[in-house]
Amino acid sequence: MDTKHLAVDGYVDTVPSPGPRGTAAFELIVQPADANTAPDAPDMVVVCSTGDPRITELLLNGIQLGDLLRVTGTLVQPDDSTAPARLTVDALEVLAAAPIPVPRELVFDRYGPYVVIFNADRDAVPVFLASGEWVGEAPSADLIGPLIDAYENGGAR
Questions:
Q1: CB 89 within 8 Å of CB 3
Q2: Contacts 24+ apart (CB under 8 A), 110-118
Q3: What is the per-residue pLDDT across 77-111, written as a single tens digit (0 to 9) for each?
Q4: With helix as H, strand as E and coil as C, how does 90-109 read?
Q5: Which helix (DSSP H) or strand (DSSP E) does residue 48 occupy?
Q6: How far is CA 141 from the centre of its chain?
Q7: If you ran DSSP here, which 8-state letter would residue 79 be given?
Q8: Do residues 87 and 75 lie in contact, with contact meaning Cβ atoms separated by under 8 Å?
Q9: Of 42, 65, 89, 92, which cross-links 73 as Cys (Cβ 3.0–4.6 Å)?
Q10: What global pTM score does this model have?
C-alpha cells in the first residue's frame, strides 16, 4: 500500500453518513490532476472518512451532494488498482456549494401568502408562508384549508 499526505479537490458524490465512534464517511469524485494524464481520463472515486468532531459535524449537517470540497489528509492507495483510494481527512474546506436541485416530481403552488408542495410519492402536503416560515404539514391535499385555518387562529405552529 502506498500512502501520502495531500490535498484534493472534488465533488461530493455520496451523502456523508455517520460511522462508528463519531466518524463520518463520504465519497468524492476527483478529476486527475496529473499533467501526463490524457484529457479524457476518467474521474476517480476517493472514499473519505474522518474522526475529527468539527469536520464530522460539518459533513453531517452542512454538506450536500454536489458540493465542491478541498480535503486534506492521508491518502492510502491499495495494492489492488481496482479498489478505490481511501483518504483520512484532517482538514476540509468548502470551495463551492452545489446549486439547489430542481425538483422534478414536485409541484409548488401558492395560495395567497401560503406555499404548498405536492409530491406524487406522498399524500402529506408541506405548507409554508412565502417568507419561508413553516406552517405545518397537511395529511392530504383535502386538509390544506383546515391546516391554514388552524394556523391563522394560532392552533398550528
A1: no
A2: 111/144, 111/148, 114/148, 116/144
A3: 888 877 777 899 999 999 998 876 655 677 888 87
A4: EEEEEEECCCCCCCCCEEEE
A5: strand 44-50
A6: 29
A7: S
A8: yes
A9: 89
A10: 0.59
